[in-house]
Amino acid sequence: MPQYQAPLTDFAFLLNDWLQIDEHYQRINAAGMDSELALEVLNQGAKFAEGEIAPLNQSGDEQGCRLVDGNVATPDGFAAAYHTYIANGWNAMLGDPNYDGQDLPYSIAIPVHEMLNSANLSWRLTTMLTESTVLALTKHASQALKDIYLAKVISGEWTGTMNLTEPHAGTDLSLLSTKADPNDDGSYAITGNKIFITAGDQDWTNNIVHLVLARLPNAPAGVKGISLFLVPKFMVNADGSLGAKNSVSVGSIEHKMGIKGSPTCVMNYDDAIGYLVGEENAGLACMFTMMNDARFQVGLQGLGIAEASYQGALTYAVERLQSRAPQGIQAPEQKADPIVFQPDVRRMLLTQRALTEGSRALSMLYAKFMDIEKYTDGEEQAHADHVIAYLTPVCKAFFTDMATEVSNYGIQVYGGHGYIREWGMEQLVRDTRIAQIYEGTNGIQAADLIGRKLTRSNGTMMQATHDVFTDIANNITVAANQQQAHALLAEWHNLSQALLEANAEHCAAVACDYLNYVSYTLIGVLWLSMLDTLPNTANRAYAKGKIKTGEFYLSNLLPRAQLHKQAVEQGANAVNATELSDFIG
Amino acid sequence: MPQYQAPLTDFAFLLNDWLQIDEHYQRINAAGMDSELALEVLNQGAKFAEGEIAPLNQSGDEQGCRLVDGNVATPDGFAAAYHTYIANGWNAMLGDPNYDGQDLPYSIAIPVHEMLNSANLSWRLTTMLTESTVLALTKHASQALKDIYLAKVISGEWTGTMNLTEPHAGTDLSLLSTKADPNDDGSYAITGNKIFITAGDQDWTNNIVHLVLARLPNAPAGVKGISLFLVPKFMVNADGSLGAKNSVSVGSIEHKMGIKGSPTCVMNYDDAIGYLVGEENAGLACMFTMMNDARFQVGLQGLGIAEASYQGALTYAVERLQSRAPQGIQAPEQKADPIVFQPDVRRMLLTQRALTEGSRALSMLYAKFMDIEKYTDGEEQAHADHVIAYLTPVCKAFFTDMATEVSNYGIQVYGGHGYIREWGMEQLVRDTRIAQIYEGTNGIQAADLIGRKLTRSNGTMMQATHDVFTDIANNITVAANQQQAHALLAEWHNLSQALLEANAEHCAAVACDYLNYVSYTLIGVLWLSMLDTLPNTANRAYAKGKIKTGEFYLSNLLPRAQLHKQAVEQGANAVNATELSDFIG
Q1: Is the Cβ pair A581, B172 closer than 8 Å?
Q2: Cβ distance A75 to A63 under 8 Å?
Q3: What letter does residue B415 receive in the DSSP assignment?
Q4: pLDDT by residue (tens digit) across B362-395?
């Protein structure tokens, strides 16, 4: 199994040369932040990812999680790595400084998150959910709840979970039936069953903070009758010490395709004591405040896996000797040439790399706007909000779809060995597959993009994003490339505007194609922009390969946008012409 | 987990209405064969696949294979199902009647093989390899070897294996180093290690016939020095009884992503006694005679899995209630509508079905030409040979690539449940993934198509295939459809002709795109042809849904051909502009 190495050179290029992060921090008044700090954090993050959790990735998959006397046992080494992680403050990177958080910019934290995903997605998941819990409590919990819980989930002394899904209520949360009955003391008795709960239990910490969606008595039907509750695994006394075990239990651990090192639990709440977070019946709104973050983070999981798969495939392609290259003998001293000289293998490697690095550029642009949203206010913040809203489903769905493609190429480059577990390439395919599903399936992301983000905002969010990409295009110095970028943006604008007139059924049928069209187009503009920056980059060897990769993207991958455009324009008819009887006739 | 039901209606349409199999059998003088017999065999095959092996698919995956005291133990029930299979003669469908084979046409056997793959790919694999062994012995073994072994592998009393791959010699067989030293009695002592040997051992039969590639002393280097040997697990006495155990042993069973019910073995040959099959140093030629068959059979694995995944997804989509359909409430008596009413779910289901049924049409056309090759001679047989040679890599690679896409849609329709093992959808993704790799990776298939089949035959095989599809197009009665079919064929012809001028490096870079271009185009012509036949089909309910599916293929999937065409024309430059230092700089 190839050793993961964090792509620090690529991050340095993106931060320093492409995003010009020092000017960015200055402009948004991110006090004390600069590129030196950023790269130092990334270096340390790389050490942790490469040295502490990457070595546990394969053994975690093989060992999986077990339920022992009602308690979850995670794979060997996972808990110890977590204790190192929180001791070194990684869990607190984004936390509120009033509760001992480090309050770092997203442009510093997000590269570290990508590395964690590359190194060990199963391990990373628990901390990601804890960060979502932090966000929810920071934005919506009462002062009293914050004072008890927030510092401990920021430091990682306790982890957090998100309890939304029920067996009959997945995509459609309006169907959920877990109930919350008021107790006399102002708390609530929570009763119901939740499924697919990541890290519903673990053996890392002595308490867990569950956030649970439930219905109050006489709450309105549908999503407007859902409230959010904090349900601790162990009750917390006034002095912060732990009290009795709450009535929360793990029913079982799911047997999954992948992320086997992450305990996905069926949770039973049986008159468990919970505390209201936010307003009554506003639980879904609370959830939505962290949806952008969680969905982007899932996109980042795809990106991390794609990087790991590309690295594995490249390592193998350089080592594996089979046949002679069609362009002529490359390694005359060997019995055969390394397969990296096979054009078809190069095509696969370039596809992996161009999709991965193009997606990484988009993720770092996203991080930049998360910073702007965090450090500015007023119009600038509102504009950043719009950009983030539009790009969130794009990042979530595109990065995870492309990760499935990229990691399957990773298997293919290995040939038969790619299918054998010990080589580690098939695990990446299995692990990343869930990212296309959770936090809203990619179909739901596409519906979100074409619905809430495009048509229901009457194009406002698209326009805000268009402004950003127009600025990027304006900065491209090579005239032909600038022209191409503007042409791409005009086409995207026109296609999006045309959809404002389409009905809901039409939009639903073409939503995934619209999302893919947008993704390939915008990443195309980013590659044109990076191709403009790369000739001035100090690391010439790195720049040379990346320029070739960008040119490959433009000639061999960007054309996919046209296929999706055609489907957006003409693909709805054949879908919507069908009746139920056409399927079950 | 949804119950597999063999697509007998679709097979009946393809055989009776579309291929007009009665006229076909008459024309090629397939004595005693008619559509009544064909459908009766298919009915019985469906019963076996649905009733005997489909129920073992999931348990076989969970249980896997074990090595106990050097012997392979297969999952519970696998051996008993095999004994039923051979008792009912299924193993002998295609066998030589001189050795108790049934000598059925391919157009009858291939649908049964597809069903076996849908029902339980792991179980099916062993019998597929035995059929390859039968083919090799029938065509190349001496009379003496045939008399001892052939009837037993045709009946299935013994199974067969193919031993090609060695750790350092996968795609490149020229590197293989297993050696064969002549013994005094005319046999050979075989010594070496083979990997990835399907059913290298099993607990189904009392003997196994291994076919092993090895080098004679002083054999020429490379592939021209490889010979084929028959190595029995147990020696066979003159009276047919079993003698001593041969020096063949299983080193280990591979831990794989899928097909876990199939024992993939590391085999050790240590002066094992073997017998030459065919001429000295002609082992690769012997292998090539069964390559078409084995590669097509792997394609059929993809087709079978795709069908199983589509059935599972459709069943779930009709049952699962989530949200309301965007076009309006569909099930007012329920709290939500079945997701089959969601346009995006329909898009996924239609993609699954259109790819699967389009591929099935191509597989049955292939079967028709296998029949022609079997029952005719002279020019007609040579023409069929060319068509089969051209279509083999197309079927192998396209069916298995599309199966990965289709089975991933199967997961996606299920949402989170698709990722959970008990629902069975993720197993299909894991099981089919190997089919893109073994019997030559799909990259090798593409190289075979654009190399040996297209350019090295100077277009002859493509032209023969073009003749066949031109006949099909000529029979389309709707003028616009006929015109479209001819336009597709002209474009394919021109693109192929242009490649005859391209150099090897260019062809290698665009080979996969050429294969995909050809696949989408030819299947497009077949859908146009089926759309012409369907209005005259007796089963109106079936025809209505299939017509919608064909129209979806033409509007939503056929455009993919243009993307691949563009890559064939323009995609080589960016690939071949790269140097090694661009990847490892």
Answers
A1: no
A2: yes
A3: G
A4: 999 999 999 999 999 999 999 999 999 999 999 9
Residues of chain A with CATH 2.40.110.20: 158-281
Of B40, B62, B439, B579, which is the active-site residue?
Answer: B439
User: Would the pLDDT of A526 be above 70?
Assistant: yes
Look at residue B117 and tell me whether its pLDDT is greater than 90: yes
With the CA atoms of A462, A464, A466 and A468 taken in that order, what torsion angle do they form, in degrees rounded to the nearest 10?
-140
Instruction: Say whether residue B549 is in contact with chain A using an 8 A CB cutoff.
Output: yes
Of B317, B555, B573, the CB nearest to A571: B555
Q: Give the Cα-Cα-Cα angle A514, A456, A492 (nearest 5 degrees).
A: 35
pLDDT of B1 > 70? The answer is no
pTM of the model: 0.98
Question: Which of B223, B208, B220, B211 has its CA nearest to residue B276?
Answer: B211
Torsion of CA A268, A272, A277, A281, to 10 degrees: 70
Structure tokens at B33: 């064969």
Res A2 pLDDT > 80: no
Residues constituting chain B: 585
Residues A199, A159 contacting (CB under 8 angstroms): yes
pLDDT digits (tens, 9 = 90+) for B522-569: 999 999 999 999 999 999 999 999 999 999 999 999 999 999 999 999
Residues of chain B neighbouring A317 (CB-CB closer than 8 A): 583
Q: Does A340 touch chain B (CB under 8 A)?
A: yes
- How far B86 CA lies from chain A's nearest CA (Å)? 30
Beta bridge mates, A272: A190
Inter-chain CB proximity A175 and B322 less than 8 Å:
yes
**pLDDT tens track for A146-177:** 999 999 999 999 999 999 999 999 999 999 99
> Which residues, other chains included, contact B460 with Cβ-Cβ below 8 Å and sequence gap of 6+?
B386
Q: Does the ipTM exceed 0.90?
A: yes
Q: Which CATH class is domain A158-281?
A: mainly beta
Cross-chain Cβ contact B350/A575 below 8 Å: yes
CATH class of the structural domain B160-281: mainly beta
For domain B8-144, the question of CATH label 1.10.530.10 is answered with no
Task: With residue B72 as reference, give the H or E element that holds it.
Answer: strand B71-73
Chain A closest-CA separation from residue B418 CA (Å): 9
**Which residue is listed with tokens 């794609």?**
A306
Residues of chain B with CATH 2.40.110.20: 160-281
